[in-house]
């Protein structure tokens, strides 16, 4: 349950998103509990509500993109008791029928494509750990196998085990709509669009969805050392599992996990409008400046040191000496996103290693042996 407490203040509840109008009247209270999405307080010096002005009063704002004031109580804490992650509770032939709670567009108008945040209600029946994935089976018949359902599509879960409402009953997916354009005509060809991504992005609250899983152990967050360093590298929707990590580290009050280390996120996207969960991450920078770092590679807006487009591997190279020193001290490094990101990153790391007089092959082997190297690309 998310809640915030204020002492003798005037509070108005304001959804933030496409509709920023005030939905409830001003009230005076000594405390307020909000049983909904993440909330955070902010101030507006000049807000009009039904021709009534509110001046310099705290306003509680809501958005999937915003982080709440740390720390938020979570439940049920029994989700911390398992010694091993839940695996394959629901399989392709017998998926779980969940319900769509909400769909929110995450990107701005100038983004290269549409990416949505999809919240799914599983009723607490399909528990998972941070870093795992759900399978989604879109409705309809597989055109290549008449009479058979569509193939399952895997999506990294973008929430902690407690979900966006902190009650252990939902999971969130970060979904980029796959659209195909004919190379000759330049027009969209709906017959070749991604079946599952378009189903998810077109869904409405209350729609049913078939899910399988959870699955995956590669990107599970190691929690043995709460003071460890975690270097997270993502392109696009590959940021999904890291959102779960960071909410667990900085947003949720988890009695068994008190993070005191360093989390360092590198995110590569095309432009500012394509950034995902940017408001959440920026708030962690403010609240936890000693424990969180956030670097962005915007390929269509920034230049690398050679004057070319700034890709995530170029941003890594800028901090390569520091990254290698952290790895030498036991830091974990994660990669998630399109598989095309890895060759460039590997080449950069190899070049840096050679400049340091090291063998990248030997170093990579040691990182894997020490379980510091975590890769999940698609």
Describe the fold and architecture.
- The chain is of the alpha/beta class and 378 residues long.
- Helices cover 19% and strands 29% of the residues.
- The protein has helices spanning 195-202, 240-251, 278-287, 312-318, 320-328, 341-355, 360-369, and strands at 3-4, 9-15, 27-29, 32-33, 39-44, 47-49, 52-54, 57-62, 72-73, 96-105, 115-121, 133-137, 153-156, 170-176, 208-215, 229-235, 252-253, 262-269, 292-298, 332-337, 373-377.
- The strands form six sheets. The protein has a six-stranded antiparallel β-sheet, with helices on one face.
- Helix 4 runs parallel beside helix 6 (341-355).
- 35% of the residues are buried.
Identify the strand order in the major beta sheet. Answer: 13-12-15-10-11-14
- Oligomeric state of the chains in view: single chain
Number of strands: 21
Query: What count of helical segments does DSSP give?
Result: 7
Q: What is the rounded distance between the termini?
A: 34 Å
The chain-level structural class is alpha/beta
Reconstruct the topology from this structure.
Elements: E1 3-4, E2 9-15, E3 27-29, E4 32-33, E5 39-44, E6 47-49, E7 52-54, E8 57-62, E9 72-73, E10 96-105, E11 115-121, E12 133-137, E13 153-156, E14 170-176, H1 195-202, E15 208-215, E16 229-235, H2 240-251, E17 252-253, E18 262-269, H3 278-287, E19 292-298, H4 312-318, H5 320-328, E20 332-337, H6 341-355, H7 360-369, E21 373-377
Parallel strand pairs: 2-8, 9-17, 16-18, 16-20, 18-19, 20-21
Antiparallel strand pairs: 1-4, 2-3, 5-8, 6-7, 10-11, 10-15, 11-14, 12-13, 12-15
Helix pairs in contact: 4-6
């Amino acid at each position: 349950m998310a809640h915030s407490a204020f002492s003798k203040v005037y509070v108005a509840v304001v959804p933030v998103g496409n509709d920023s109008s005030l939905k409830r009247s001003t009230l005076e209270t000594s405390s307020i509990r909000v049983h909904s999405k993440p909330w955070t307080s902010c101030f507006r010096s000049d807000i009009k509500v039904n021709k009534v002005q509110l001046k310099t009063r705290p306003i509680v704002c809501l958005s999937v993109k915003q982080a709440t004031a740390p720390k938020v109580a979570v439940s049920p804490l029994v989700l911390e008791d398992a010694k091993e992650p839940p695996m394959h509770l629901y399989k392709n032939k017998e998926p779980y029928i969940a319900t769509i709670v909400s769909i929110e567009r995450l990107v701005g108008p100038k983004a290269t494509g549409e990416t949505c945040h999809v919240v799914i209600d599983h009723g607490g029946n399909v528990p998972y750990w941070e870093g795992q994935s759900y399978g989604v089976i879109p409705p309809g018949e597989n055109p290549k196998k008449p009479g058979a359902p569509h193939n399952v599509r895997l999506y990294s879960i973008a929430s902690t085990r407690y979900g966006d409402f902190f009650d252990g009953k939902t999971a969130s997916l970060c979904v980029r709509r796959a659209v195909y354009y004919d190379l000759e005509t330049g027009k969209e060809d709906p017959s070749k669009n991604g079946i599952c991504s378009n189903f998810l992005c077109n869904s409405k609250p209350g729609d049913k969805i078939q899910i399988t899983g959870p699955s995956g152990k590669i990107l599970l967050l190691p929690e043995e050392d709460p003071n460890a360093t975690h270097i997270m590298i993502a392109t696009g929707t590959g940021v999904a599992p890291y959102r779960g990590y960071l909410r667990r580290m900085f947003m949720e009050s988890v009695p068994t996990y008190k993070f005191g280390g360093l989390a360092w996120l590198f995110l590569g996207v095309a432009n500012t409008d394509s950034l995902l969960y940017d408001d959440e991450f920026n708030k962690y920078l403010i609240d936890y400046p000693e424990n969180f770092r956030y670097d962005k590679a915007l390929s269509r807006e920034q230049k690398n040191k050679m004057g070319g487009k700034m890709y995530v591997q170029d941003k890594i190279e800028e901090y390569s000496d520091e990254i290698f020193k952290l790895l030498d001290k036991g830091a974990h490094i994660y990669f998630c996103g399109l598989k095309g990101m890895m060759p460039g990153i590997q080449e950069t790391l190899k070049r840096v290693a050679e400049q340091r007089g090291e063998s990248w092959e030997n170093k990579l082997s040691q990182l894997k042996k020490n379980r510091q190297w975590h890769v999940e690309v698609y």
